[in-house]
Amino acid sequence: MIDIEVGRAEDFDEIGQLLGTAFHETPDPEVHEIERGVFEPDRSLLVRDEGRIVAHAAAFTRELAVPGASVPAAHVTMVSVAPTHRRRGLLTALMRRQLREIRDAGREPVAALWASEGRIYPRFGYGSAAPRLTLEADLTELRLPGPAPDEGRLRLARPDECQADLARLYERLRAERPGWSARDGRWWHYVLSDVAARRGGATERRVLLHDGPDGVDGYALYRTKEHWERSGPRGQVLVEEVVAATPEAYRAIWRLLFSLDLTRRLAYTRAAVDEPLLRLVDEPRALAGQLVDGLWVRVVDVPAALAARRYATAVDTVIEVTDGLLPENSGRWHLVGDGSGARCTGTDRPAELACDVRALGELYLGGTGLTALAAAGRVRELRPGALVAAGPGFGWHRAPVAMEIF
User: pLDDT tens for residues 217-240?
Assistant: First the structure.
């Protein structure tokens, strides 16, 4: 038997020490205090051995943008096991308990996380739902289109001066991009906090704003990093976020980021698979894009989750789902939906498609093709033609991407 306790506010310091050990970091006091501001003790689960915390998992209470909607989603985080207590089933016990509590609470139909290693979480039903592109550009090899007439105005601002503008634009556009998490005041403080220990030798965070006819319609969060070689400057631009409501704002922001004096390289590690920048530069190969996993999603309540999102085309199918951890999800589910709404109910009708709950997680944000999963043997077609009929509906017009690591 593994005794799992609910965390308390006073456990946070010891939890931070455990995380530092597990992730090979020296805890920074300033970072630690910022993280304390978003910690939710009642969603913290821990295991003690002789009074010391040796395993931990937690979740944040936030909403997640999904195709056509925003749903409550448990943002799983701070998962770690002490090196002295590995291979004892502690992680498995914590994950099972956490999923059971999320399901029983009935508020969050899905959970989401960033995986330190991709092999860990599939066994708990998480599927890779929002891949991302990492870009490492050589700016000397790239050109962007020239400015258009009346393209608007760019200006630099301090994060504490423009948080309200950033929040308004981000929330306005969040509905259009599956994978973006809601940010209240606490989370904007967390995202914009700029601790020297986390700069990696780069500058403080800069905020670039684009003003259109109706005010701020684009922004970028970025840093720069000085570097010199015998041949001259080789500075780097480190882009964290680019959010733009119009093509004009998007082009203007990237044109400035590509042309900063004394810089020759640029890195952007959270680009979307359908990032417009790929269609703007004159030599996309020079962006050196690499596809990696980003956000992982676990469907906790199958009918509630499938009914909560929207579908690109009309869907009317019966899916047989298996779930070894949450047996309530196992069974046949009749899904009917389109771009205006959906419903999902249990049924005795013959199944047309079959998959495990992990595959549903991969499909959920619209970034994984149903037929691609079928080609890998992850989805089975039980009625000829069911894949062709249902496949387009599970997609979406924007690729999912996660804007932040939590």
Answer: 999 999 999 999 999 999 999 999
Which CATH number covers residue 84? Answer: 3.40.630.30
Number of domains in the chain: 3
Strand pairing report for 52-66 and 353-356: unpaired
Question: The domain containing residue 380 runs over which residues?
Answer: 296-393
Could you tell me which residues come within 8 angstroms of residue 282 by beta carbon, excluding any fewer than 6 positions away?
Answer: 142, 143, 144
User: Is residue 148 over pLDDT 90?
Assistant: no
CA–CA separation, 7 vs 94, rounded Å?
12
Instruction: Name the active-site residue from 39, 219, 364, 406.
Output: 406
287 and 154 fall within a common domain: yes
The verdict on whether 268 is a catalytic residue reads no
337 appears as a binding residue in the annotation: no
Reported pTM: 0.95
Q: What percent of the chain has pLDDT over 70?
A: 100
- Is there a binding annotation on residue 80? yes
Catalytic residue, from 12, 39, 121, 170: name it: 121
Mean pLDDT score across all residues of the chain = 97
Annotated binding residue 191:
no
Residue 291 assigned ligand-binding role: no
Residues 43 and 54: their CA atoms lie apart, in Å, by: 17
Indicate if 406 belongs to the active site: yes
